[in-house]
Amino acid sequence: MRRIFVICYLWNAGWMGNLSAQVTDANEDIRGPKPLVEIPVPQQSDLVFWSYIIGGLLLLAIAIYLWKKYARKEALRNPPEVAFAALADLEKTGESIAAEAFANRAAQTIRQYIAERFGLAAPRRTTEEFLRDLTEDKASALACESDSLRIFLKACDLAKFAESNLTATQRSELIQAARGFVRSTSNTVSS
């Protein structure tokens, strides 16, 4: 009985006779690779293509124009003008910024002025390194101003590194000392 059941089961399951419920076509029994399907790329009209090109060139021309205008404006400003403008901006901040940031900006303004006006690498050196090199070079245009520069930079370093608080009077004195230094060296012939 059990054998009959197994034979009937296999017969119904397709083990005996045709294994597929569908009749297979001889052409589809073993097939070769199908050809690649090419997805059509939408063609851009010439008008859209050229409008993108012209728009890009126009934006590039505007960017170049604005860059040259800004660069020319900056080139026309001489180092004393840049320093005076930066010191005026710093003076407007008053006591709204911390003493450390105030002193840092004042010192960086003078260091940048020295670098642009005299070609010295003041922004990349410590105060001690810069002042030591300045005192060693007696022929430097800054040699006569080294004492006032030393006092100014030491006062800025004290506010930056010793975390001393600057009063409104001390901030004003720093700005005036920086302006005096720029004023006295702006007419000096750089060597």
Describe this structure in words.
This protein has 191 residues and is mainly α. 64% of the residues lie in helices and 0% in strands. It has seven helices and no strands. Helix 4 packs antiparallel against helix 6 (146-161) and helix 4 packs parallel to helix 7 (168-186). The longest helix has 31 residues, at 46-76.
What's the overall average pLDDT, rounded?
77
Coarse structural class: mainly alpha
Span of the ends, CA to CA = 119 Å
Low-confidence runs of at least 5 consecutive residues = none
Number of strands: 0
Instruction: Enumerate how many helices there are, as a single number.
Output: 7
Q: Strand-residue fraction?
A: under 5%
What multimeric state do the chains show? single chain
Helix content: 55-70%
What is the CA-based Rg, rounded?
41 Å
The rough form would be described as elongated
The major pleated sheet works out as:
none
* Strand/helix succession: HHHHHHH
Throw out a few tags for this protein.
7 helices, mainly alpha, single chain
Write the layout of secondary structure elements.
Elements: H1 2-13, H2 46-76, H3 79-93, H4 99-118, H5 127-136, H6 146-161, H7 168-186
Helix pairs in contact: 3-4, 3-7, 4-6, 4-7, 5-6, 6-7
Summary, kept brief:
By secondary structure, the protein is mostly helical. The protein has helices at about 1-15, 45-75, 80-95, 100-120, 125-135, 145-160, 170-185.
